[in-house]
Amino acid sequence: MECLASPSTSGKTRKRTAHPENWKQNIAKRQRYSPKESPNRPRCQHLRKGVYKCESITMRDVMNFHAAFYKYHNKETQDAFLLKYCVPVIPKRKRPKNKKHHPKTIHTNYSIYSVSQKKKITICQKAFLGILNITKHRVQYIAKKFVESGGQAVKEKRGGDHKSHLFTEKKNAVMLFINMFHIDEAHYCRGHSERRYLPAELSINKMWKMYNKQPNLEANLKVKKGLFRKIFNNNYNLGFGSPRTDVCSTCILLLEKIKRESDEAQKQRLMVEHRVHKLKAKAFFNLVREERPNLKTFSFDCEKNLPLPKTPDQITYYSRQLYLYNCTIVEGSSKTPLTTQNVFAYCWTEDQYAKGANAIASIVYHRLMNTNLTDISTIRLIADGCPGQNKNSIMIAMCSKWLSSSAPDHVQRIEIVFPIVGHSFIPPDRVFAHVEKDVRKLECILRPEDYLEIIGTYSTIVRMGSDCEVLNFKSGMSSVIKDVGSWHFQFKHCKRFLIQRSKEIGNVVIQGEVHYTNNLGVLKKITRKNKKASDLNPEVIIQNIVRIKPAKLVDVKKLLTTHFGNEWENEEEFDFYRSVLSQTSSLEEEEDASQEVTCELQVEERCL
């Protein structure tokens, strides 16, 4: 959403706001105008009993008057308080006692407010100064300046800001200029942020030059770059956006059409279409953040392939490398804090298992089997809509198998949710951001264990093969589950799949929905005739049977030789690469042997 720039009203700006009250000099100033000791009740005995009433003051009056004076630790406020109870007057007759004394120009009458008598009581100077613990010179100076200024309060000239008022017009002109720029919300923000962003091609320096080059700008309103930067940083919470990546294609297409459309009716239709698209994305994120006592949410995704080895050599860009795979499952909604107790990273290398639907389904199956589901009736699985890994019939078959044969009796339903294309930010992406940030700090990574050490700081590591078996759901489901084309709904267009227990023991019914909030479909079985979902018994896939392409192995060996020399094979830290090369060569020998045997048998059969 586009809007104009405006000053920050919440106090959050680009630069941290200064707090002068915490400065050492201001702390000392407050202590200077704070009470040093408790007040004492005056015990004066005046001969002229009709003038001063010091003896009539109670201790309560003394404490209240003392507290009122020191309520504010500010000299100007205290001076105003003193002028309220110290009234300076000019004496009519000036008769010094002797020649050593100058004629008295000002006489001060002192008084105090009595709470018990509800009126001001005149007291002597000694009693007044003793109650407030101040000197007579402070009172005399205030009274003198008050009379000389014609009855105006004394202004404090020490310290303070004496320059800001000189640049008020310039500041207002600069802020008016900044307010004309259009701003956008953050595209990559993971929550609501008060910061807004100007176009990426701008900068503070460019904006300053644009301001001073305005044709109608008066000469006295031009500013230096330092003042412009100070106003921008201290009054606005604005940044400069970077060019966006990984943006929703539908959003870009619709926004560009809206910009170029001249027909108002057509433009309105496009705006409605874009609005509906955004509302669908919002409905998906509402499901991601939903929390209920009987609901358990799992979100899972695969991180981008982590290269082995990771080196700074130039030839790395042109070389094929081995990969470490990481599929992370987060237990809980998007509002749940990410800890190693609810984040599980399933990791394996390229030579162990293929990164396909069987591996992902086995990971989710393992997580469901090893989670405490007490008092849970609904399981919600959230993943992106990648058809090769997540959104496929293999995932549906796995969930059907678990719900029909392994799930606790109180778990009645599984809901699988996929996002709108282009709006698929889910909790595992937050984990990947932390991992990739740490990986970028390392120049060289040689072993899979180095990656696992980084991933382990944010999650619980589960090793594929040893901790989690990979099951062949794809081949096992062919005799139990119907082909997708025979299902009672269109698989491709569905965003939600609801799997529930069937009345038939050991079986389930499934429903596909194209909407996130409305259930319009019908629950039906997808198993073949005389088959149940519990009949699905996938076999365990043997580890380390993946044959890596020879061209990739050549590139890996070349990369290691270029970076570490010809003796790299003798180093202990390269055991992983030696094992991969030896396993691949043994697989090739077995394939060659089987091909030779096959050829000999075929020749013999032809001879017969």
From TrEMBL:
Coiled-coil spans in chain: none
Q: Where is this region: Disordered?
A: 1-44
Record's compositionally biased regions (Polar residues): 1-11
Q: Where in the numbering of this chain does the DUF7869 domain appear?
A: 341-488
Family annotation (Pfam families): DUF7869
Q: What is this protein called?
A: DUF7869 domain-containing protein
Record the organism: Parnassius mnemosyne (clouded apollo)
